[in-house]
């Protein structure tokens, strides 16, 4: 056992949880002095002691023993300070290592389809026009029709050689991040916490794609503060990627006879975006007063004022991974969390298990399932 690795992992995990050495010692059933000596690399712990510590802080024993890979080419910006930042990056690094290991093992890689576009964009002046051009060209590369809504953004990104990781993080200040190819990507990570709307998941995925295309030169793990200009450019990209200009105008004009609120909500459903995305696009031509008008009209109709976190007519994330039969019974334009389920890694795991390249327990580890859940999944394969 490497004392330095164990000590560094313990300190990282403890600080991420905001605990003192005494609190961890109590959870592990050992004295504070004994724990301090282990974390400071002054003593060699017994395996049973490490098991007690791991159990106490809610991690696997392996998490204390294995050195972590440091990601460098990452765009990880958040509106609030995050104690869990290092742990998130470590988890993503391990996920990327597993993903790339399976791709190499099975000789099953996806080419990144936006290389040429990224190079072209790097020579253009930054701003809204560049973001709109990037969105138009990205859709053209993927061969989406001009008026075609994006129904499966996770699958779409994966088909273009971008790895997608739905990460659950209890935070309303973090929506997503992205990783450059040099660190095992390109990859998009989206926070799919249940209190964040599905529409926001989808927009975040498109937003991070925008960063990959427009701001690759800014990928630096040392940078944590948001850049307003870059965020705005990525927002413009996401808006136009999800709602092409001509298609948006056509659908908006088609709702001319409806009330203002109904018009916004119908267009929102068609393109599977947030009502805020629709209002943002309307504000480009109608001005910022459109936000106040919608709030007033919505309150008049519903008697409620929308908070910053509210999403009208959004489905609950507890319907994530519903059966196909349930999904088919819903309205065609309805949106559920099943619209944001990555499945390429799951396919690679199934292929590796069926070829006896990896064990079922290794497959469970890669997919972050317990073994019982993995057995149920394997038994359901047809």
Automatic annotation (TrEMBL):
<protein>
    <submittedName>
        <fullName>XRE family transcriptional regulator</fullName>
    </submittedName>
</protein>
<dbReference type="InterPro" id="IPR001387">
    <property type="entry name" value="Cro/C1-type_HTH"/>
</dbReference>
<comment type="similarity">
    <text>Belongs to the short-chain fatty acyl-CoA assimilation regulator (ScfR) family.</text>
</comment>
<dbReference type="InterPro" id="IPR010359">
    <property type="entry name" value="IrrE_HExxH"/>
</dbReference>
<dbReference type="InterPro" id="IPR010982">
    <property type="entry name" value="Lambda_DNA-bd_dom_sf"/>
</dbReference>
<dbReference type="Pfam" id="PF06114">
    <property type="entry name" value="Peptidase_M78"/>
</dbReference>
<feature type="domain" description="HTH cro/C1-type">
    <location>
        <begin position="10"/>
        <end position="64"/>
    </location>
</feature>
<feature type="region of interest" description="Disordered">
    <location>
        <begin position="311"/>
        <end position="338"/>
    </location>
</feature>
<dbReference type="Pfam" id="PF01381">
    <property type="entry name" value="HTH_3"/>
</dbReference>
<dbReference type="GO" id="GO:0003677">
    <property type="term" value="F:DNA binding"/>
</dbReference>
<dbReference type="InterPro" id="IPR052345">
    <property type="entry name" value="Rad_response_metalloprotease"/>
</dbReference>
């Amino acid at each position: 056992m490497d004392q330095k690795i164990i000590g560094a992992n313990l300190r990282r995990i403890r600080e991420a949880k905001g605990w003192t050495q005494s609190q961890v010692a109590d959870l592990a059933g050992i004295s504070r002095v004994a724990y301090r000596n282990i974390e400071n690399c002054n003593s060699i712990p017994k395996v049973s002691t490490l098991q007690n510590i791991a159990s106490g802080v809610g991690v696997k024993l392996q998490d204390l023993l294995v050195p972590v890979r440091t990601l460098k080419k990452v765009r990880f910006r958040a509106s609030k300070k995050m104690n869990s930042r290092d742990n998130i990056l470590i988890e993503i690094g391990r996920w990327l290592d597993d993903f790339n290991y399976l791709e190499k093992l099975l000789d099953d890689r996806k080419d990144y389809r936006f290389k040429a576009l990224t190079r072209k964009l790097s020579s253009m002046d930054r701003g809204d026009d560049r973001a709109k051009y990037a969105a138009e060209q990205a859709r053209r590369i993927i061969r989406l029709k001009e008026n075609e809504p994006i129904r499966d953004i996770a699958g779409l990104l994966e088909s273009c050689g971008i790895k997608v990781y739905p990460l659950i993080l209890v935070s309303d200040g973090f929506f997503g991040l992205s990783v450059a190819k040099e660190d095992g990507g390109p990859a998009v990570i989206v926070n799919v916490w249940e209190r964040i709307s599905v529409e926001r998941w989808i927009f975040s995925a498109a937003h991070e794609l925008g960063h990959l295309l427009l701001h690759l030169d800014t990928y630096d793990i040392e940078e944590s503060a948001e850049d307003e200009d870059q965020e705005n450019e990525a927002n413009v990209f996401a808006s136009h990627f999800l709602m092409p200009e001509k298609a948006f105008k056509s659908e908006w004009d088609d709702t001319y006879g409806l009330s203002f609120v109904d018009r916004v909500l119908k267009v929102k459903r068609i393109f599977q975006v947030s009502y805020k995305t629709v209002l943002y696009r309307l504000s480009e031509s109608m001005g910022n007063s459109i936000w106040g008008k919608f709030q007033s009209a919505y309150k008049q109709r519903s008697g409620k004022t929308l908070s910053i976190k509210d999403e009208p007519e959004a489905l609950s994330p507890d319907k994530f991974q519903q059966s196909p039969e349930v999904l088919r019974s819903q309205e065609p334009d309805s949106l559920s969390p099943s619209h944001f389920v990555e499945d390429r890694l799951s396919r690679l795991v199934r292929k590796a298990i069926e070829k006896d390249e990896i064990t079922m327990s290794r497959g469970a580890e890669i997919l972050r399932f317990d073994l019982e859940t993995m057995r149920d999944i394997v038994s359901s394969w047809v």
